[in-house]
Design goal:
Mean pLDDT: 96
Bound molecules: zinc ion
Structural class: alpha+beta
Largest sheet: 4 strands, antiparallel
Number of domains: 1
Radius of gyration: 15 Å
Number of helices: 5
Distance between the termini: 31 Å
Order of helices and strands: HHHEEEEHH
Low-confidence stretches: none
Strand content: 15-25%
């Protein structure tokens, strides 16, 4: 897929040290357009609807907040711990800023675990960007599939 000027600029903002110290691309050497396109294809193959998945993750984040920083059980099948740090992070696509809120989710039936933030949820929902392979906040489609089951 072709890189638009907006995607090029977003990819520059994703480099380590621009918005976050580790950046958003991990060890991924693909360009942003290819990362987004290939992850969209994978999600489609796995039968994951981005809007629906984002809604569920947002609910887990909101319900997890009730733990006030401690892990709590949500809907009997998730262990969720939501932590907040001071300050805000800008979206690399330059369309908003987000609190530094992290949610660690453990899906009890499968043992699948993953970590997402308010910003990574926004990147997923709005930009269909799951982050590069090796990024600590990457939303791995296979793990997401387990979490949603
Ligand atoms: Zn954005």
């Amino acid at each position: 897929m072709k890189m638009s000027p907006e995607l090029k600029r977003a990819q520059e903002n994703m480099e380590p040290g621009v918005i976050t110290s580790s950046g958003f691309l991990g060890q991924d050497t693909r360009n942003l357009a290819d990362i987004i396109e290939q992850d969209e294809e994978t999600l489609q193959k796995l039968g994951i609807d981005i809007e629906e998945a984002a809604r569920i993750l947002r609910e887990l984040l909101e319900e997890g907040r009730r733990g006030l920083g401690e892990p709590i059980t949500v809907r009997e099948k998730y262990r969720v711990q939501v932590t907040e740090a001071r300050g805000f992070l800008a979206c690399p696509f330059e369309d908003g800023i987000f609190r530094k809120t992290n949610a660690e989710v453990l899906h009890l039936p499968s043992g699948a675990a993953f970590l997402f933030s308010e910003l990574s949820l926004h990147l997923f929902e709005k930009h269909h960007f799951l982050q590069g392979i090796g990024s600590p906040f990457r939303i791995d489609p296979q793990i997401l599939k387990k979490i949603l089951s």
